[in-house]
Automatic annotation (TrEMBL):
Residues 119-329 form the Smf/DprA SLOG domain. This is DNA protecting protein DprA. Belongs to the DprA/Smf family. It comes from the Bacteria. GO terms for biological process: DNA-mediated transformation. InterPro entries: DprA, DrpA_SLOG. It comes from Streptomyces thermolilacinus SPC6.
Length: 421
């Protein structure tokens, strides 16, 4: 069956029709162009989502070598033919066989369709090809809720992750970065968890920008429960994505494996706050292995919540403090952060000789003769007098009898150059 029929099986929203057009390899191998995704291929991959755990590289190798349809056929054979699949222990193989007996691909495809979503597989036009960098750990497929095109959004996306038990500073920075990136046209990707993840999503949503939540469970499962409203809002305004079929619940291991998808989807990963054992650091290390930008936001040197970030920075991550700096790092040529400098004060606008004459005046409350000023400034008397009149017109000095002194205004603002003591 052709691609259009495959989209109809999924029953998704606007993205479903895009699902079957050629855009990459459809099953065996990575990145093959010009192949159509058949209904049989899509249904087989939907079934395998209930058999293969996220990040399973052994099963990923089978999938690459055999294709989804043949792999499912060998796993489903009754009885299983010994030697049909190699490399797995008897216990591990038995686990696959137990799971394959409970697959329900068409029911899962109908469930995602009822949500207005779709099931993406390699070869779909909407499949983000950067996930192929994961090799045999690449997702079998992606279940998606939301109207936007995931491939296009992923091309200009940044991950913002961090600790669940973040400080108020961490939450503030995550929201600030999420909103700032969204305002600059970047898609903010995170995991919808409590703490930094949720703050980053809310920042992007508050700026009416784009955000993607990558879940470690089915996209119809609100986890954590306290973020049910947030995840629902992301599905309406952005995208909710997961490797696991509808109804599947998260486990601790699935959270860590989910992080590799966040890292692979995006141009770079920003870690806002993370202790030494934070899962956010796993996302950053995945990003490093994949050749993506790894970025850290500094915190207090005494804060355990920033200790992991600081270690990341010591290991080669790039320090940033705002969305402009992130955009400059991960963006295209010309997306530059503004120059950073302190405020320009009137003293900064003086030429070097005039500034020297100003420096030659005594502290506020005392005056000096023109000859004393000239001697202290290392210039002639006539030149010093001309400079003093110039400083007088600018409000820096005033005459007192035959002498010159700093004005009250100048006395309140000491004669220090920018960056001075």
């Amino acid at each position: 069956m052709g691609a259009g029929c495959a989209g109809a099986v999924v029953g998704g929203g606007p993205g479903a029709a895009r699902g079957g057009r050629a855009g990459g390899g459809s099953g065996d191998g990575y990145g093959g162009a010009g192949m159509m995704v058949t209904e049989e291929e899509r249904v087989a991959r939907a079934a395998l989502c209930r058999v293969i755990e996220p990040g399973d590289e052994l099963a990923g190798r089978w999938l690459r070598e055999l294709g989804a349809v043949e792999l499912l056929r060998r796993l489903s054979a009754q009885p299983y033919r010994r030697g049909a699949l190699t490399g797995a222990s008897e216990r591990r193989l038995q686990g696959y066989l137990t799971r394959v007996a409970r697959v329900r691909p068409r029911q899962d495809l109908e469930a995602i369709g009822a949500l207005g979503g779709r099931f993406l597989v390699p070869g779909d036009a909407e499949w983000p090809s950067q996930l192929d960098d994961l090799g045999d750990a690449r997702p079998v497929g992606l279940w998606v809720r939301g109207l936007a095109d995931l491939r296009r959004w992923a091309l200009r996306s940044v991950a913002v992750v961090g600790s669940r038990a973040c400080t108020s500073y961490g939450a503030h920075m995550a929201a600030l970065l999420g909103g700032g990136l969204a305002e600059r046209g970047w898609v903010v990707v995170s995991g919808a968890a409590f703490g930094v993840d949720g703050a980053a999503h809310r920042g992007a949503l508050g700026a009416e920008g784009a955000t993607v939540a990558v879940l470690a469970c089915g996209v119809d499962v609100a986890y954590p429960r306290g973020h049910a409203q947030l995840i629902g809002r992301i599905a309406q305004q952005g995208l909710v994505v997961g490797e696991l079929p509808p109804g599947d619940h998260p486990t601790p291991g699935r959270f860590l494996l989910r992080n590799r998808v966040i890292a692979a989807l995006t141009r770079g990963t920003v870690v806002v706050e993370a202790a030494y054992r934070s899962g956010a650091l796993a996302t950053a290390r995945d990003a490093q292995r994949l050749g993506r930008h790894t970025i850290g936001v500094p915190g207090a040197a005494t804060s355990k919540y920033s200790a992991g970030v600081h270690e990341l920075l010591r290991g080669g991550a790039v320090l940033v403090t705002d969305a402009d700096e992130i955009a400059e790092l991960v963006g295209d040529i010309g997306e530059l952060a503004p120059d950073r400098r302190g405020p320009v004060v009137p003293r900064d606008l003086l030429d070097p000789v005039t500034a020297r004459v100003l420096d030659a005046l005594p502290p506020p409350g005392r005056s000096a003769s023109v000859s004393d000023v000239a001697a202290n400034a290392g210039t002639g008397v006539d030149d010093a007098l001309g400079r003093l009149y110039e400083l007088h017109s600018l409000g820096h000095v005033e005459r007192q009898g035959d002498g010159w002194r700093l004005t009250t205004l100048a006395g309140r603002h000491p004669n220090t150059r920018r960056g001075g003591p």
